[in-house]
Amino acid sequence: MLATLADVGYPRADRSLFAMRDQVLDRWLGESYYREFDVKTEADAYRGVGVPRIRGRYRRCASQQGNALYFLTKLGIADGRVDALVERLLHWQWPDGGWNCDRNPSADTSSFWESRHAMLGLALHADRTKDVAARDAALRAAEVFLSRHLFLERHSGRVMNPEFLRLHYPLYHGYDILGGLEAMAEIGRIDDPRCRKALDLLEEKQLPGGGWAAERRLYAVSSSMKTRAEYVDWDGARPREMNEWVTADALHVLRAAGRM
User: Fold this and answer.
1) CA 121 to chain CA centroid, nearest Å
2) How many CB atoms within 10 Å of residue 205?
3) What is the mean pLDDT of residues 38-62?
């Protein structure tokens, strides 16, 4: 819920959100995230309690701590405890600049899914606090995306995942080219030439009558609380009809890129 409020521009510094903030911080700063253990196999990584390290890389879903850092800061309800989120993200960062929770020992490349929110959280935190280490880490993470033009395999030039080309709202911890472009706009890298291919694709996706569609949704509508469920439909997902939320994000990105 807090992530959604931050995304739609909810007013900052609402004290009524403090109880939820405290729950979030208690959850993502629990003692298990300070326990580390070295293992050699994927099976052993699942047997331990804490954060496994395999071949020198911490296997941690940094999108969780990263998203918490991002939305608490954006909502203006972050307190001194978010410094601990920053410390954990810096501690878990992989050599290529991102993060990954894949416990397969052969995994040696950061994940788009795990890295986007961590990058955004660190960048926003750095903007608010002038934390040089957080800013440097966010810029290193940006290279995970930019070195692949936001959606292409680095060496073959093929599309990394067909789902990256479909637009969604809300995106949650997922990834698509619009989410990647939004992130680049937010951290000040939208002018990088390596964004051009994704920007071209986004422009091509504009509907004949104007606007952009949500081509797929990552949730189900439900009146009860459960995983991947929403109380509202966010204008649905219809490939040939404009979705107001996707359209607003697309216009923001294109304006930031000087294409409006």
Assistant:
1) 8
2) 18
3) 97
End-to-end, the C-alpha distance of the chain in Å comes to 32
Q: How far is CA 234 from CA 8, 33, 109, 212, 243, in A?
A: 11, 34, 33, 14, 8
- Distant-in-sequence, close-in-space partners of 26: CB < 8 Å, separation ≥ 6: none
Report DSSP letters for 90-124, one per residue: HHH--TTSS------TT--S--HHHHHHHHHHHHH
Degrees (nearest 5) of the Cα angle 94, 96, 99?
Answer: 40
pLDDT band at 85 (very low <50, low <70, confident <90, very high): very high
- Check pLDDT > 80 for residue 226: no
Residues 237 and 218 sit within 8 Å (Cβ to Cβ): no
8-state DSSP, 150: T
Sheet architecture: strand order including 36-38 = 36-38, 51-54, 57-58
Structural contact between residues 184 and 150, judged by C-beta atoms closer than 8 angstroms: yes
> Which among 145, 165, 233, 182 has a CA at the least distance from the CA of 70?
182
Query: How much is the mean pLDDT over the chain?
Result: 96
Give the pLDDT of residue 97.
98
Q: Could you tell me which residues come within 8 angstroms of residue 192 by beta carbon, excluding any fewer than 6 positions away?
A: 146, 184
CA distance 178 to 169: 10
Separation between Cα atoms, residue 90 and residue 121, nearest integer Å: 11
135 within 8 A of 126, measured Cβ to Cβ:
yes
Q: Which two tokens stand for residue 96?
A: 């290529």
Whole-number Å distance between alpha carbons of 86 and 117: 12
